[in-house]
Design brief:
By secondary structure, the chain is mostly helical. The chain has helices spanning about 5-25, 35-55, 55-75. The protein contains 3 helices and no strands.
């Protein structure tokens, strides 16, 4: 049986994605921009990607929020 995935693991994956995005922009690490700035830039660029791909951004954000709320509740409200 596969062990359950924790929210800490999910956050670690997201951090890796942000770092990869930052590096793709020719920034070698979060040292050059605050992680919060990189996060906002990535969300904006994901919106552009969704638009060009015909994805409904609002629908995906709502679904992501539903998953987040469920996963957070499953860990007793842990971040």
């Amino acid at each position: 049986m596969t062990p359950p995935i924790t929210n800490m693991q999910r956050a670690t994956w997201a951090k890796a994605a942000l770092l990869g995005y930052s590096q793709a922009k020719d920034e070698t690490s979060f040292l050059y921009e605050e992680p919060e700035t990189v996060f906002g830039d990535m969300l904006c660029d994901l919106m552009h990607f969704a638009n060009l791909s015909g994805f409904d951004w609002t629908e995906h954000i709502a679904r992501a929020r539903m998953h987040f709320d469920t996963e957070k509740a499953d860990e007793g409200g842990a971040s």
